Amino acid sequence: MVNAILKIFSESLAVDAGETIIRMNEAEKNRLKPAAEAETEENMIDGTDNCAVSEDDGMEEISKGKISRECDISDLLPSDKWELKEVTALLMAQQTALEIIVNMCCSEDPSDDEWEELSSSDESDLFMENSYSEGSGLLMSPLCLSAEVHSAFLNNLIPKKILEKTAFPNSVALDICMQNPSWKPLIKKLNTVQCRALTCLHSILLVSDVDCLGGASALQSLAQHLSQLIFSKTELPEDMEFLEAITSALRALLQTMASKNISQCMTPEQLLALCEASIHSSNANVRVNVVSILGISGSVLAKVQDTAETLKMIGKFLLEVAMKESSLVVAGEALDALFDVFADGKEAEKAAVQMKLLPALKEFQPVFKMRIRKEGKGQYSTDQLCVLDNVKMNLRRFIAYQETLGKNPT
């Protein structure tokens, strides 16, 4: 049963929606062309008849009117746009397939309310694939999927199909949709499919180990792919749904790579540019993702020589977010990222001293505690408050740790 379902999903995802739009739009033009030509010819005949009967009375006008209506074939044409409906159905099928695959890979099924929230705002869950292995290089973790599902995913090349859907929509297809008002809503549907695929990527990265993901080379290829999606255009993406989906996927990927000491392909400068552009997003999840991404990157850099200046830039950015961010959740994530970046290493110690991190945190500590007391109740969930309490405790411990370093310089 599972294999049969995934086979259907695989066949649906294998269809190139962009090429389908191009083909169906051409089919619509060809279908409507005879009607347009007939109407033009009829208008020419009407013009000739008008000249011929210009001196006749109203009876001939009535007769001509009957002829005109008899020659009108518009009633014989399809009243609906079947080509447009076919493309819409395809995109809906692909979106649904991706959403179901996300649920199949999650350790816990989200409730209806949770999925509704995920669908309306934007994603955060699932995928995996060795981009160039014809579906065999990237394996599902047997710890997270049953043997049946694991085998069905691989047999039907689901990972490969999902990765393909993370790419930007066909530019020619987008132009067609932009120029045709009735086809324009397809643009949103194309973007939604891309975001669902990125959500799939995020989920698989969370539940799979490195070997199951195809090894270090596959993860580095995936990092390059995500980097191209983010930085391929002159301006960073602004769409909230896409930003949340891709930053969630990138966060999970960088965390996986960092945990296994796999070199990262994105430069600190690129990550800082992404964070500076995204930190003002109205979507708090995007802001949480980007500060976490910066924390992961900084913690890796802290182990590399001659990175103090870069660590100082990262530290200043995270400290400013922690102090000025309106959301306590984002501020707490920024503090957590700071703890990760400056947890260990001579370069981190040097950068912390140069940016006066310890006095800044000691001054901020009572402010953060007061904000939690004043803003916590009523504005944040119990789980969020637990996380914030943990951040508050870690802040106290981190300050004590930094004080110890000051007393015992290495």
TrEMBL record:
Domain of life according to the entry: Eukaryota
Residue stretches making up the SYO1-like TPR repeats domain: 147-404
InterPro entries, per the entry: ARM-like, ARM-type_fold, SYO1-like, TPR_SYO1
A Gene Ontology biological process term: ribosomal large subunit biogenesis
Pfam (any one): TPR_SYO1
Similarity field: Belongs to the nuclear import and ribosome assembly adapter family.
UniProt-recorded name of the protein: SYO1-like TPR repeats domain-containing protein
Source species: Callipepla squamata
